[in-house]
Amino acid sequence: MTTFDKAVELLPVKGYLSMEIPKGIDLIEEINRMRKEKNAIILAHYYQTGDIQDIADFLGDSLQLARAAEKTDADMIVFCGVHFMAETAKILNPAKKVVLPDLLAGCSLADSCSGEGLRELKKKHPGAIVVSYINCDSGVKAESDIIVTSSNAEHIINSLPEEQKIIFAPDKNLGRYINQVTGRNMILWDGACIVHEAFSLERIAEQMLNHPKAKLIAHPEAQKPVLQVAHYIGSTANLLNYVVNDAAEEFIVATEEGILHEMRKRAPGKKLIPALTIDDKCNCSECHFMKLNTMEKLYLCMKYELPEILMDEEIRIKALRPINKMLELSKAIK
Question: What is the mean pLDDT of the chain?
Fold first, then answer.
């Protein structure tokens, strides 16, 4: 068995091609060469490591990445994010090859909800439509009527009739926030992101005392007590734009700290302070899953075009409808 064959055999366990990189290789040069030769596009989320963000063809949040995946004319989509994001790209592009550097780059929030569980909840609430946050797997998307992101959730919920009963899955914190700003009473699935739930209000309060001029900005996936004291609440992309455009010079940022890389590039003169978490031994708000992707794995993924995202066509077609609905309802959002 060759080294490559063994690496392929271990893919389900390892999640990536466990192979040695040739010594002395220039990863950036090789990735750029393969990108051109294979007509590939690299899509990366703001929560990726800085080197991956810098080499991406397109950098964005979930809504921006979904739009980019929908519009690309590349033959191969290399998705540097987590599994559900790569799945979304495949749902939108069945004829294109979609690869993910590490298949184990999952999501605690997506893992908290299943298509089967959602079907059972729907039975308990006849007449309700299902609006699902994009942070879910294809099975959940297939059971949904509309997909939303943190950038467009408020806009889409407001576009629905006030009397419409709505099940919102899987993030209870985002759902609770949308209920608050829209005046709705959506039925919430009990799921959450372990990164955004880990912020400590007590420790953030200390940070605010130590940095009295700083504004606290938070992602709506954070828990209610943190959102209640935030100066601004918004999606990843909106938090970035807020830091760039607001007059304040200091910000305490309560979301995955990968976004700070782009914030520092676009607002170099401003002080950015990662919000503290409950774990005082870590003092970090990193998503372990997002950080599974590395430049080395990206290189191997592009070279061998593995791991590849594949899915059942029936599920893909069902999941496509609510995504298309989202993209249609989001046209007014820049």
Answer: 94
Q: Is the dihedral of CA 45, 46, 52, 58 positive or negative?
A: positive
pLDDT digits (tens, 9 = 90+) for 177-207: 999 999 999 999 999 998 899 999 999 999 9
pLDDT in tens, 128-147: 999 999 999 999 999 999 99
Cα angle, residue 240 at apex, residues 206 and 144 outer, rounded to 5°: 100
Q: What is the 3-state secondary structure (H, E, C) of the chain?
A: CCHHHHHHHCHHHHCCCCCCCCCCCCHHHHHHHHHHHCCEEEEEECCCCHHHHHHCCEEECHHHHHHHHHHCCCCEEEEECCHHHHHHHHHHCCCCEEECCCCCCCCHHHHCCCHHHHHHHHHHCCCCEEEEECCCCHHHHHCCCEEECCCCHHHHHHHCCCCCCEEEECEHHHHHHHHHHHCCCCEECCECCHHHHCECHHHHHHHHHHCCCCEEEECCCCCHHHHHHCCEECCHHHHHHHHHHCCCCEEEEECCCCHHHHHHHHCCCCEEEECCECCCCCCCCCCCCHHHCCHHHHHHHHHHCCCECCCCHHHHHHHHHHHHHHHHHCCCCC
Share of the chain above pLDDT 90, in %: 88
d(C-alpha 323, C-alpha 140), whole Å: 12
Residues in the chain: 334
Contact yes or no for 204/183 (Cβ under 8 A):
no
Displacement of CA 207 from its chain's centroid (Å):
27
Tracing tokens 């629905």 back to the chain, one arrives at 160
The residue behind tokens 């249609």 is: 328
